[in-house]
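ARCHIVE CARD
Drawer: 12
Card no.: 0347
Subject: one protein chain, sequence and derived structure
Cross-reference: see card 0346
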Amino acid sequence: MVQHLTITYAAAVGLSIADKYYSWCLRSAEAAGICGKPVTPYLLDFLANESGGRTLQANIALLENNARIAARVAMAVTKLNAA
């Protein structure tokens, strides 16, 4: 069983907006001296704030979809193991 999960930031907010925000947030992180592990939460917060919450909504939708797919995979594996 193969599942393909995709939702991109560009799909969530539009490609031109995605490019603008992505470049902007990377410059902001660099200017703030943020690097390493703290970069991801910084970027997620920055993008959520600057996009008016659109990226947060997209990330929540992706998380929910991942949970649905994981449940389907678990059920399929259980059925295979029971056979």
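Annotation on reverse: Residues 9-82 form one domain. The chain has a mean pLDDT of 81.
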